[in-house]
Amino acid sequence: MGTRVLVVEDEQDIAGLIKHALERKGDIEVDIAGAGDAAIRSVSEAAPDLIVLDLNLPVLSGVEVCRIVRARPATSHIPIIMLTARASESDRVTGLELGADDYITKPFALRELVARVRAVLRRGAPGDRKTAPVSYSGNHLMADFDAISVRVDGSQVRLTRREFELLRYLVENRNRVISRDKLLERVWGWDDSVETRSVDVHIGRLRSKLGTASRQIETVIGLGYRFID
């Protein structure tokens, strides 16, 4: 079976264009949901590999759909790309704080959307990190990256996909300063269209969830971030 993407968009013409663009190469299958409740049903019946989610939806808003998907253990790691006409920085930050992996504003270029979708899917492809560490064990933090499990002081910590990928990359490069631009390039997979503010938002959310282990993520003023043992 190919990769499955769920497009949640109530404007049928836009949804159809996205479906056509993503399916053009034949390796992605696209399902469309025209309302928030339909999206939740679709995800519950068969979890997609990625969700393209419009914020302005009937019945359930895109914000509520995102919250529900992120709250359920079985679906919390599904990457979400938000699609909306809202272009202000506060709206973008809100979307990221809800757990979105990326944020694209209308009007958009289909080629850009397809590139971002494929970049996110590549990061989740099997075998991407054959030589990378699969686990980390510290005084407070224990992470099994193969099992997608993170624990702090023995308690399970639920991270969004983006937070998990961010932690993984920092741990893989521990004791090294990583710039915001490098994190955008390696974790977001799209280095010229996502603001560095996105990194700061996700680092803040990650720290708040890591509790006593949050001190291992240091801010290096003017340079970036560093994970220390």
Descriptive report:
This protein has 229 residues and is an alpha/beta fold. The chain is 39% helix and 21% strand. It is built from 8 helices and 12 strands. It has helices at residues 12-23, 36-45, 62-71, 89-97, 110-123, 161-172, 180-188, 197-210; strands spanning 3-8, 28-33, 50-54, 80-84, 102-105, 135-137, 141-144, 149-152, 155-156, 178-179, 217-220, 224-227. It has a 5-stranded parallel sheet with strand order 2-1-3-4-5, sandwiched between helices. Helix 1 (12-23) packs across helix 5 (110-123), helix 6 (161-172) crosses helix 7 (180-188) and helix 6 (161-172) crosses helix 8 (197-210). The longest helix is centred in the middle third of the chain and has 14 residues, at 110-123. The protein is globular.
List keywords for this structure.
229 residues; five-stranded parallel sheet; globular; four-stranded antiparallel sheet; alpha/beta
Distance between the termini: 41 Å
Give the spatial strand order of the biggest sheet.
2-1-3-4-5
Number of DSSP helical runs: 8
Report the uncertain regions: 125-131
What order do the SSEs take from the amino end to the carboxyl end, as H and E? Answer: EHEHEHEHEHEEEEHEHHEE
Q: What is the arithmetic mean of pLDDT?
A: 85
| Percentage of residues in strands | 15-25%
Rg over alpha carbons? 17 Å
Fraction in helix: 25-40%
> What is the overall shape?
globular
The biggest beta sheet is recorded as: 5 strands, parallel
Number of strand segments: 12
Secondary-structure-derived class: alpha/beta
